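Convert to structure. Protein one:
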Amino acid sequence: MSRRVLILGAGGLGREVFWWAKEAGLLPLGFIDDNPAALGDRPGYAPILGGVEGAPLDAPVLCAIGQNPLRRVCVERLRARGATFASLIHPMARVCQAELGPGAILAPFAYVGADAKAGAFLFMQTGAVLGHDVRAGDFLRLDTTAFVGGYATLGHGVTLHTGAKVMPGKRVGDGCTLGAGSVLLSNLHAAATAFGVPAQKL
């Protein structure tokens, strides 16, 4: 596998992914971002090589766009140009005999429990937990310390913001968002946004 990678997105998450990639032994060649000034004058980073429609695609891409569904759109646009995508599991993350789809990014101290299965482009921030035997679709985003209990089922494009929790065995539909600090004690239908303790649909 090539150590050379490109990073899609040069915002705050992209800059974090840049350092995680280096810590994992990868070589970030540069960023793909439609804003050529996204890095500002920050030192120490590889350059922005171009936008989604024009950047060279001579290495696998790490998707470092956090917002759903924007990252799905950008991934599809790059795939149409022939891009391939890499995964990044930080050496301080833990994965226990789980099945992860392509394009996963796991930050330091992310944890995936035994026999969990997640689709493509899983993103887990620091301290996020995906419990044992969880089933999750594509483009799942777990922010810092978000938690999904064992045997829960999550659809495609689900976002759990910082500290949000899905209790074991619950079901979350496609495109749902759970607000920061919320605790989901019941099932959540597709495209819903919920917030609070216990979480209530907005």
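Protein two, convert as well:
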Amino acid sequence: MQYLFESVGKAASLIVQCDAELVLIVWFSLKVALISTLVAAVVGIPAGFFIYLNEFRFRRVLITVLNSLLAIPTVVIALFVYAFLSRRGIFGSFNLLYTQSAIIIGQTILVIPMITIFVVSALGHLDIKYRKTAMTLGANRWQTAHLLLHEAKFGVAAAIAAAFGRVISEIGISMMLGGNIKGFTRTMTTAMALEYDKGEFVLAVALGLILMAITLGINIFINYFQGNINERYG
């Protein structure tokens, strides 16, 4: 127990002193997670609106598949992307494997289903009168979507926050597609795993504390928006 307290104390000291290696790892993790989340949002939000606003064959099946993909292990996504990015893969000539781009691709694929299905859920909680009123007044699909986005903004924001939390804390994609290269593709989770293997816990504990703080902040953010949703429609 004393060793744990000592590690926490030294870890806190690293954080306060803004250790160069620590800052680099945290910055890289935040950068790739933000890019992945933004790209996934650009794809997932319109996809969610499309699924909600349109009745088409196999719609229910698609929603079921998207819900199932929420629980898919990150290593499965990593293995799938690896098959395409490796030298023998379709995109092997682009030399993307073990780069930041590879991590971003994998993380984006991971959270597109999450954002899509959360947006569908957020829209589903809206009063149907918004959609009917807009269509009665002659609004086209784009105008209707704009109105619904305004009304569901809290749910959409919560979906994006949840997706960011998912990618910032994953390890399978970052390890398998990034290779955990120091100063280039090393994220907080992969660095923690490496430090554990080396038996050096100070940096791992420092990164763990930062990751916990980020996760706590995301949960507070999501709960805030969910509170607004419940207050408005509850």
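DSSP finds eleven helices and no strands in the chain. The chain has a mean pLDDT of 88.
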